[in-house]
Amino acid sequence: MRIFVTGGAGFIGSALVRHLMENTDHEVLNFDKLTYAGTLTTVERVASSNRYRFVQGDICDADAVRAAIAEFKPDVITHLAAESHVDRSIDGPGAFVQTNVVGTYTMLAEARAYWLSLGDAAKAAFRFHHISTDEVYGSLGDTGLFTEETLYDPRSPYSASKAGSDHLVSAWGHTFGLPVLITNCSNNYGPYHFPEKLIPLMIVKALAGADLPVYGKGDQVRDWLYVEDHVRALHAVFEKGEPGRTYNVGGNNEKQNLEVVKTVCTILDRLRPRADGQPYATQITYVADRPGHDKRYAIDATRIKDDARLGARRDVRDRHREDRRLVSRQPGLVAGDRRRAQGRPASRAFRMKHVLVTGGNGQLGTELKRYAWPEGWAVTAIDIDEARPARYRGDHGDGRGRP
Q1: How do residues 175-218 score in pLDDT, each as one tens digit?
Q2: Nearest-angstrom CA–CA distance, 105 and 98
Q3: Looking at the predicted structure, is the pLDDT value of residue 403 above 70?
Q4: Which residues are bridge partners to 222 per DSSP?
Q5: How confident is the model at residue 367 (pLDDT cuts 50, 70, 90)?
Q6: pTM higher than 0.90 for the full model?
Q7: Three-class DSSP labels, the chain
Q8: Left, alpha or beta for 115 (phi > 0: left; psi -120 to 50: alpha)?
Q9: Rounded to 5 degrees, what are φ and ψ at 279?
Q10: What is d(CA 74, CA 114) in angstroms, rounded to the nearest whole number?
């Protein structure tokens, strides 16, 4: 098989490239922009193989994607290229929308055009595999697990952009018949992890004698998945998974962030003890929590375990499986009740006092302006002025045209 890997110089992508090169006879094309988080040192040990090739390119560049696909003629496209750091998405969400949403659209458009050019047998065998995150499901309470039927409820610009990309992939499968697969994974750790993420960041800071910053109380829970286990699951899914299906991939290894940091400190105490004999844990400090920090993630990977064709390598939890699935399918539950039944916090209610209607001269906008809003609410409508298409006007009824 010929496997086209986007983001193959990043953390998970490079692990997949190494796995495929060292454990299969597949040919691999690594398509990566080489941003701050990508480096070819991650694939050095396989780069000399005649089954491997690298193309530096941007998934948002349709011409570059089209040329690489046409030259390589892949059987499978595994799409891992993404912006993935939550803190960065809070500081600069635009890059996440561009890469994760627009980039995924570009990959889908070019993959579909290529797929339509194939003969019947090659078309039937082709797969577009999109790799995503469990963060699209939102935040769990103290109990419950994410299943493939869990409602999407992203809480950060990062997870919202990944949720958008998931929906695009699903739509290309349903609308155009493109043979798509989606996997949603829990937190990964392992070799070549970029040191902006928790575990490598703590290691680097500890060895440098710096503070080890922990958000809030450090009681956020994550399900930790070793990256090499993850890529084995990805390999199984794109070779044996059923097109149109989503598969959750988890590690069955829930830990509070503070526990993870303390574990790193304990290991470093043994492997690289401090010169002053003090434990690294004395460097832990507590900082203000980040906005919208999700409380808990945990994956129910029963589907990938139970599907005999996939042969999941690691054992996963399956308790309360039917209860969770029954709850997620109850049509009588409103969204907030369903979230509570799954052990997830209901959305906060909020009060509006001033409503801004964009597209106020359209059909729905006009109806909203006419709506009998509660007493004391202010309503402003703006729309593009046909006479001045580059400007906006307000509809206050005072003729001054101020939005």
Answers
A1: 999 999 999 999 999 999 988 899 999 999 999 999 999 999 99
A2: 10
A3: no
A4: 255
A5: low
A6: no
A7: CEEEEECCCCHHHHHHHHHHHHHCCCEEEEEECCCCCCCHHHHHHHCCCCCEEEEECCCCCHHHHHHHHHHHCCCEEEECCCCCCHHHHHHCHHHHHHHHHHHHHHHHHHHHHHHHCCCHHHHHHCEEEEEEEHHHHCCCCCCCCECCCCCCCCCCHHHHHHHHHHHHHHHHHHHHCCCEEEEEECEEECCCCCCCCHHHHHHHHHHCCCCEEEECCCCCEEEEEEHHHHHHHHHHHHHHCCCCCEEEECCCCEEEHHHHHHHHHHHHHHHCCCCCCCCHHHHEEEECCCCCCCCECCECCHHHHHCCCCCCCCCCCCCCHHHHHHHHHCCCCCHHHHHHHCCCCCCCCCCCCEEEEECCCCHHHHHHHHCCCCCCCEEEEEEEECCEEEEEEECCCCCCCCC
A8: alpha
A9: -70, 150
A10: 9
Q: What confidence tier does 380 reach under pLDDT thresholds 50, 70, 90?
A: confident
Q: pLDDT tens across 299-345, in order?
A: 999 999 877 455 444 433 332 233 333 223 333 333 343 343 344 44
Q: How does the average pLDDT of the chain come out, rounded?
A: 85
CA-based nearest residue to 338, from 323, 351, 328, 347: 328
So which residues are the catalytic ones? 134-135, 158
Locate 262 and state its tokens.
């303390």
